[in-house]
Each structure stands twice: as C-alpha cells, then as structure tokens.
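Support reply, case 0932

Customer input (verbatim):
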Amino acid sequence: MRNADFRRYWFSSVLNGFGGQVSALALPLCAVLLLHATPAQMGTLVAAQAVPFALFALPAGVILDRNSKFPILLLSESIQAISLASIPAAYWMGTLSIHWMYANAFVLGVCSVVGGGAEQIFLTYLTGRDGLIDAQSKLTATDSASRLLAPGIAGILIQWLTAPFAVLLNATGFVISVFNLRRISVRDPRPAPSDKHPLRDIHDGLKFIWGQPLLRALAWATGFWHWLFYGYSALVILFATRELGMTPGMLGTAQMVGGIGVFVSSLLLKPLNRRYGPGRTILVGVASTALGFVLMPTIPAELFGSRNASAVAYAALAFFFDCGVMLFFMPYLALRQKVTPDEFLGRMTSTMRFLTVATAPVGAMVAGAVAEHYSIRTGMACVAAGGVVLTIALLMSKPIRAVRP
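Our regenerated output:
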C-alpha cells in the first residue's frame, strides 16, 4: 500500500512540477510582456514571493510540529489553484496589474512556506528516512522530464494563446493534484498536544540548528545562495527578452535544455553521493550554478553575429545551472532530514527555510535597483561576483566537506 501511496504522491509531484515549470516562464512573462515591468518592478515581484519566508517561516514550524501535515498540504494546493486562476481571470476582465501580480506572488510564497514545509515532512513519513535519497532521486528524474518538456510547451502556449492561459494550466493541475492526494491512505501521526508557548518552540528550533555544526553551515551557505538566486531570477527573463531579443518560443526552447541538466543530475546524484558523499556533491552543485551566474551576463546580444547563437549560449548555461541546482538541493534536503529527530522536523524545516530565504527579497530588490540605475548586465554581474565568493567559501567549509558517504 505504501508503494501505491508513493506513486500517487509521485503523480501529484509530476503534475505540479510540470505546471510549476509552465508558470515559472509564464508568470514573469505576464509582467514583462503584458505589463511592461521595469527591472525594479521585477525585483519587487520576485521579492514578494520571498517575503513570506521572513514573516511566516518560524511560526509555520510550530504549526507543522503541532498539527498533521497532510491536511495542510491539501489546503495549500487548493489556495495555490485559486490564486493562479485569478491571474487569467483578471487579465480577461482587463484588471490585471503589477500590483495584482505582487499580491499573487505573496500568496504563492505563503503557500510555499507552509505547504512546502508540510510536503517535505510528509515525504519523510511516506518513505522513511532511509528511503529519502532513493525517493528524491525518482522525483528528480521526473522533475527533469517536466523541465525538459514544460518550458517548450509553455513558450508555444504563451506565443499562441498569451501567458495567462499558460498560468491557467498550472491552476488546473493543482485541482487535479488535490483530488489525487486525497486517495493516499498513509497519514502522518498527529503530534501530542504541547503546553509550550509558541515562542519557546521557535527558540528551541533556532537553538537546535545552532547546536548542529552541519545545519549551521548549510544554513549560511544556502541563505547566501538564495540571496544570489533571487537576484538572478529577477533579471534573467528581462535579460533574455530585452538584451538577447528572445521570443517566448525561443526562451521556452532554451529552458528545455535546463531540463536535460536536471535529468543528468538525477543520473549523477547517486554515484556522486556514493563515492564522494553528500557534502562534496553539494560543492559540485554550487560550483555549477556559479558558472551560470558568472557567464550569463557575458553573452552578447549577437554572438558571432547571430541572435540564435546567443540563444544557444543561454541554453547551454541553463543546462549547467539547472544541473547544479539539483546536485545542490537534493543532498542538502536529505542531510537536513537525516540529522533531525521527528519531534524537531517541522521546526527544523521551517527554521532552515527562514534562515535561508529570509534575506532573498534583499537580493532581488538590490539586483533590480542596480539594473534600474545602471543596466541589466551590471545587476547580473553583481550576482556573478557573489557566486564566486560563495563557491570559495564553501570549499573552505569543513562541516560540509567532511560529510562522508
């Protein structure tokens, strides 16, 4: 029965992953192409999705440790479906604005904080700690298929039917996922009631992470990486469309190559973990993303006199970047869960998400402001410099390097 339940969970993951990849291209293109967003507005839009981590991640940990995770997961996916569906509805009614996009980004961020934490913990109950790496390897493999197919389909849909229609596909996927997940028979146990004050629980979660050298090292490294990633995300679609002149179809096709990178990472994950350990696999992943940070702003508008060649260079860097993201995050998530006892899983997950994403809005806002006052390339160059610093710092981080197979 547990295998059948995992297959249902897996199906929902595939469905939401596919829809998420469509929206990852469609949502920023709504702002860039339909609302003509400036770099500063794109920075604000990306920041709006990260702000909930700073506001709610710590109390979310208390909520998750004191309640069953499965109902929270279902509620989160239902809210995301409604939020996403409101974007095409507003567009077709002629009321879509950048502020509407900010509000939706904030709501989706809240769902990511609470529902995403519930999803990570529920997977631990569903597979057991010993099965996490294997389960995440399977999820990574299918996620790579989504990353391979979805951006190309999204690019075609956006070019033919407009970006809001593509967003509607993601909303529909969440509705189907909710009905599918309700058929899972495994339920996480409801925690025993706690008489502690919530602030005490928050303090205990912070203290637990501070007392674990590995978690502490992962927190600062991942926090800095998110700072850079959100700055990069605020500008990369603007860079592709306005600096390189890529159409939605070209952009979608280039992003598909990133999906190949995710697929390659799913093949590399187990051998790298087995031979070098998760710590050094994380280093490989960070170095690969840093390559994307550094080289992306160096692509000229016409490489060798051709815009198509520039698009090919963009796609090649997307390959290395997406491969690196998965080699970084899959071992990172597994290490967190492995060293944390059950009673701290909720607080650890949410506290780590607070520590690692709370500063991300600053990265997005700073990158957007630099791009607004100077240029998009200059804003991305600032991110590139940070990527080099992070890679060097991680190479010197003993707690992460010391994790053995």
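We compared this against your earlier run and they match. Two observations from our side: The mean pLDDT is 82. The CA atoms of residues 6 and 126 lie 7 Å apart. Please reopen the case if you see a mismatch on your end.
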